[in-house]
Amino acid sequence: MDSFSNVIRAAxxxxxxxxxxxTFMSDLLGGRLGVDAYTRYTEQLWFVYEALESEAGRLAxxxxxxxxxxPELFRRGALERDLAHLRGPGWRAGMSALPATRxxxxxxxECAERWPAGYVAHHxxxxxxxxxxxxxxxxxxxxxxxxxxxxxGVRFYVFEEIGNPAAFKRGYRELLDAVRADDxxxxxxxxxxxxxxxxxxxxxxxxxxEFPLSA
Length: 215
Known about the structure:
Blueprint: H1 4-11, H2 13-20, H3 23-29, H4 35-54, H5 56-59, H6 76-87, H7 99-114, H8 116-131, H9 134-145, H10 165-177, H11 183-210
Helix pairs in contact: 1-11, 2-11, 4-6, 4-7, 7-8, 7-11, 8-11
């Protein structure tokens, strides 16, 4: 029988590709959008991670979600440093979540409050993605807009407390494989992973509408 982590990865692969190749992300990585689009994207990330991490302390003692609450992963502080660099010290003023972002953050909070295993699905799709594909965005941002390497503006993508990302990801997948849940519950978690990718793709879609470029 395939491991739970492999089942999750395989089940969400198509949507993962869809998110990575969205019009907005393609234009951003292709250097066809300016730093204002990158800033707006970073703002949307803040709302999602605020939802993820504001509930983390309460979930730390949960039998299912607790093992995944790892402070070295937390991104909200890094996002706030990036936003202060991108928008200045008054970065909170004028911040707004897109409708898709609000829906995404609300779903994360709902899972955190009512369904810890569902929270794990969102935790997995975000943080392991940050450790992997997020590095491509960091590299592009540094080259396109002259940010200092791994400095303010791209700190979201820099996991200073994780010395070996590959080993960390292996350990994370071992935690997934050890989740105490029956087959039906695991199927629900897989479905929530797909939902997480769909919510993320919806954010990209709305960002693409705000920054239209590709014909």
